[in-house]
Amino acid sequence: MPDRNPNAWVRMPIAGFLAWIIPGLGHIYLGHRMRGLILLVTISVTFWTGVAIGGVRGTVDPKERSLWFIAQLCTAGNTVSSFYLHQSVAARPSMNDEASVVPHWASVDVGVHYTGVAGLLNLLIIFDAIARAESSCSTGRKNGRSFNGETR
Amino acid sequence: MILAELFVSGIGLTGLQRLLLMLPLCLSIALVYKTIRCERLGSVPLATLGLWVTIVLGMYSVGVGLWAAFAILV
Question: What pLDDT band is residue B12 in, cutting at 50, 70 and 90?
Fold first, then answer.
């Protein structure tokens, strides 16, 4: 069991939680600002490009695509806001006709892949933020080493 | 609200456009992976480019291989 600074037990869950809510925010919290900004822009652009391609009703759909929705939920802020948009679109009287708002299945397919991959990439980012919080606080280990000891 | 309308209806895609849309998705994967792995941010662009080319060539090779196998066997 490595010796850990007590700070690590606070910083690790905070970094992971922030990274889950907004991609890259965990890294920004840990002081890796530029890295966090790159991750924030990349994940958000990928996610919302997918929503724009497939349309929000076809892409973010927990009933029809529950497994993909779980993958999308790995980037919680983006998914919750797009699900809110989905709900508000579904509530419009003019949007009751499914065919008028859900595009061709091929577009929805591409959109679902974009958003799902964005969520799964954010899972990597969450783990990296937790590992960086852990390695920056642990004693007896050099900074800049990941949890498997590999130099980055 | 105008911005939200961009995400409501989606867009129509042809088969070629679906294939081409793999390129930015692979770029995103390569960029996130290398941003996490590279200690110096200066080395990220070149490393991303190398990984992106590898992924794209690998994926298209698999696609062409499967297409050829399908064409021969069926």
Answer: confident
Residues A49, B24: C-beta atoms closer than 8 Å: yes
Q: Which residues lie across from A145 on neighbouring strands?
A: A151
- Hey, where are the domains in chain B? 2-73
Q: B33 to each of A11, A92, B63, B74, how far by Cα in Å?
A: 23, 40, 23, 38
Enter the ipTM: 0.88
Confirm if A4 and A106 have CB atoms less than 8 A apart. Answer: no
Domain limits for position A68: 6-91+100-137
User: Which residue(s) pair with A138 in the sheet?
Assistant: A4
* Residue A120 touches chain B, beta carbons under 8 Å: no
Q: Could you give phi then psi for residue A144, rounded to 5 degrees?
A: 85, 10
**Shortest Cα–Cα distance, B35 to chain A (Å):** 7
User: What is d(CA A44, CA A48) in angstroms, rounded to the nearest whole number?
Assistant: 6
Domain count, chain A: 1
pLDDT, one tens digit per residue, over A26-58 is 999 999 999 999 999 999 999 999 999 998 888
Tell me whether residues B10 and A34 touch, CB distance under 8 A.
no
Query: Are B36 and A124 within 8 A, CB to CB?
Result: yes
Distance from CA of B58 to the nearest CA of A (A): 18
| pTM metric for this prediction | 0.85
**What mean pLDDT value characterizes chain A?**
84
Radius of gyration (C-alpha) of chain A in whole angstroms: 18
Would you call A43 an interface residue with chain B, using a CB distance cutoff of 8 Å?
A: yes
